[in-house]
Amino acid sequence: MREIININTKWAFSKEAEQVPEKMPEKWYWVTLPHTWNAIDGQDGGNDYYRGVAYYAKEIDRTDFPKADQYYLEIQGANSSADVYLDGTKIAHHDGGYSTWRIDLTDVWKEKSLLVIAVDNSENDFVYPQVADFTFYGGLYRNVNIVAVSHSHFDLEYYGGSGICVTPTLTENDAKVEMEVFISNAEEGQKLKYVLKDQSGTIVADFISDITDTKAVLDITNVHRWNGKKDPYLYTAEVSILCKGEILDQVSTRFGCRTFEIDPERGFILNGVEYPLRGVARHQDRWGIGNALLREHHVEDMDLICEMGATTIRLAHYQHSQTFYDLCDERGMIVWAEIPYISQHLKNGKENTISQMKELIIQNYNHPSIVVWGLSNEITMKGPSDEELLENHRALNDMVHEMDHTRLTTMACVSMCSIEDPYIQIPDTVSYNHYFGWYGGTTDMNGPWFDHFHERFPQIPIGCSEYGCEALNWHTSNPEQGDYTEEYQAYYHEELIKQLFSRKYIWATHAWNMFDFGADARNEGGENGQNHKGLITFDRKYKKDAFYAYKAWLSDDPFVHICGKRYVDRVEDVTKVTVYSNLEEVELFVNGSSIGKKCAEDHFFHFDVPNVGESILEARAGKYQDHSFIRKVDTFNEAYRLKEKGAILNWFDITAPEGYFSLNDKMETILASKEGQMLFMNMLQQMGQKEEQSSGMQMTPEVLKMIGSFTVLRLVNLMGLTGGKITKEQLLEMNAQLNKIKK
Predict the structure, then answer these.
(1) pLDDT of residue 706
(2) N or C: which end of the chain has fewer CB within 10 A?
(3) What is the pLDDT of residue 668?
(4) What amino acid positions are annotated as catalytic residues?
(5) pTM value?
(6) Which residue segment(s) compose the domain that 664 sits in?
(7) 3-state SS, one letter per residue, for 132-198
């Protein structure tokens, strides 16, 4: 019987070493896996986190492990590439930082050996991802195991798979369950025993065959369907290799029996019933931890997503931990799983897209939660598709359908990608990443855009794979696009919920993002090194108000929530207070006195509250209550106003003569004047070429239309994010020129 022995403890680590050690190093750091070397510098801004080679070393004594015919090293995540050495000899290489892979140690492992894994997250042109808005944490950030097996065993080397593939086919109340296994070193006379168990562990079907019969079909009558969050029922398939009645090896996997379809008019349909997919995208990393997560971190993430009431998760932008896929199965989440083919097509990267997709499918085929395989994300960021990009997508799409006929393909398109681009016709379904109301445009552009797509391509299921805006602990009573306040984020998501959730044909919506996440290149919002579009903070400690807007629409657990708890000091005499609840009626009390009851079909209750002295607010909805506190002040509390850390200029540093333009004015206003238009085009010529080369973003008519709602300062700061150098002197000179142009 196989045994899996974890070897996470007592690894020596160095990112200063220049070569593979010949003996156990004495002056390296001791670390315990999971581990990343970018837990701090990958989250503090500056885009200067260490990207290079680092070494992990461990002595492994064969006598410390169970006796077995063969031994395999199992690495569940090494970002981004890795070389494995045993006693100084290189025995394996792997490209792709998010999947499991294994190496046969049997013939090279001495009684005592020095195991060294050189992990490399440096830049190259052939391993994805290379360009993306998140940190590529280096390290051995998931478990490392030794797998001890008999000579005859289920395959451990084929793309990191489990050696068993389960495909249920449903007919009314019954299911035929095909089990296929992959065996190494089968011998004559051996047998295979196939077993199906229900969720309680009771055997519902079994079958014994010759070792050569690696496929079997077993029947389940009165099948209990896996039915999403309503009833995520799981069966277990178990297969054993038998020799004279003795079990040599055994594998098992849970699976679910369900049907689904994605209809361009009705959206997602689960087991014949419409089942709206409304949820979030998830990045796996955490504050101070990076992506070196423990099981409790995954469980906490899933608990929070379930509390919000989501029915779907887009697992962006890479293969996630098996722990989290298992949780998705158990909790009934509908999952979009994808590879990190993202932002920029690499001319030398096709082979890597193929291998990462094979690993994703082979390692995750049995998860009933997964319904679509994602081919790419925003891959036309640098401009329209070309033949090479199209060919790569066609190859991926065809391969996925060949490997898995039970699921569909999809991809996430960048907002500026024309709906006429031929690459959107390749997958079975498509979604768009839209930030109208944040990165240009206005919130009311979202719904009409989807209506236009649906009218133009009524046969293509269309979804929204990303939408969101950033919010930190900044506050205002007059939220505006681009101010990074919690109040604007709440308003933005109120608007997007109403527009997206009301369109049944949108097959799935995934808010970006469930949690703030590391993006070391960012210096936005006053806290560098993060993308703050999360509904919950990076450390999972604070649920932003927008989180409760979704809970009000999606969760069946009754609650009431007063928004703006961190916004205490307010200058206005009458202040707006928003309450979210999934109950029909909310009553608001100020210092114990009711100021009225309200009903709201959209679950968003808005009250005008007299702001005098200090006020304790209490919202009641049925037996549920929530409390807050506000205080009247004479001058605005500057602690609530964004001051960007490391910004070249803040808005309050800019001279803005009355009646004349400045960097604080919106692009659409400036472009409406001839002089402003000329100045802006000149700015693009002087600076934009460098930024365009760095970001790859082309100033197409679609892009120019989107940026109209940006202030010049915000647009320039965002252009600076892409790597271009814009000096304070350049900005001041631009502002001086704008100050000469009358509005």
Answers:
(1) 65
(2) C
(3) 82
(4) 378
(5) 0.92
(6) 648-738
(7) CCCCCCCEECCCEEEEEECCCEECCCCCCCCCEEEEEEEECCEEEEEEEECEECCCCCCEEEEEEEC
